[in-house]
Each structure stands twice: as structure tokens, then as C-alpha cells.
Amino acid sequence: MSAKDIYHEHVRNALVKDGWEITHDPLWLKWNRKDAYIDLGAERIIIANKAKRKIAVEVKSFVSASEMRDLCEAVGQFVLYRRALAKNDPRRELFLAVREEVYQRLFTEPDGQELCATEGLKLIVFDEDTQEIVKWIP
After folding, report:
1. Which of 38, 35, 30, 39 is nearest to 88 (CA)?
2. Is 44 within the bounds of a domain?
3. What is the pLDDT of residue 55?
4. pTM over 0.70
5. What is the pLDDT of residue 47?
6. CA–CA distance from 130 to each of 12, 100, 119 (Å)?
7. Distance CA 99, CA 127 (A)
8. pLDDT beyond 60 at 66
9. How far apart are CA 93 and CA 9, in angstroms?
10. DSSP helix, strand, coil percent of the chain (3-state; round to 5)
11. Helix (H, G, I), strand (E, B) or coil at 62
12. CATH number for 79
């Protein structure tokens, strides 16, 4: 199992503040014969139809010396984990959690928006200071 991201607890707290119940920390999945661990699993009851919405959240800090390397790692993990979820827990949606600063710097630009669209990236943008979710994309 890999080490927790430095913003792991920030995102966990933000999800709880937003009404989510943390069900897994981490969420274990099987990928072929390997183990995969997504940072968080959470669910929330949708009042209108009394169904549960289930999500998996991979937290990424983007603090290394190479922002492009961080982006490659984040997108690669997202694609791999999405595939593992499709086999193991297809009703669970996968999100990548990033700080608002990272979102503004990387994902609001045309190339970032194109990357989100072509790779099907779903983002949770959070404020690291208030530990609150700023936006969900899409």
C-alpha cells in the first residue's frame, strides 16, 4: 500500500463537511493479480430516490519539482483505477482531488480542459485552508 498524499486528510475532511460518509480509507481493488489502493471511498444517500451515490477519490498534491510528471502520474493512476473500478465496483464513480491552485494552473487552460474531456477526468477541487470542496467537475 502506498503512502498517503499530504492533502489526504484535507480531502477527507472536505468530503465529510460536504455530507459524504467515508466508507474506505483506502479503497482496495484488484487489478489483474495486483492490489490497487484508491485513497478514499465514500457514499451519500440521494434523498430524492433513496439510492446511494458511491465515489472513489484519488488525492494528488502536485508538489514535486516537475508538474508535468505529477500530471502524468495522476492521469495514469486515474485511467488505471477507472479500469479497475469498472471490473470490481462499476457503480462507483472515480474522482481526482486537486487543490484549487492546481486546478486553476493546469485544468482551466485549453490543454487541461481537453485532457479532462478526452480522458474523462472527473475532478474534486478543494481549498486546502478551509478544507472544503470548491467545485465538482463535471
Report:
1. 30
2. yes
3. 98
4. yes
5. 74
6. 12, 11, 29
7. 6
8. yes
9. 20
10. 35, 35, 30
11. coil
12. 3.40.1350.10
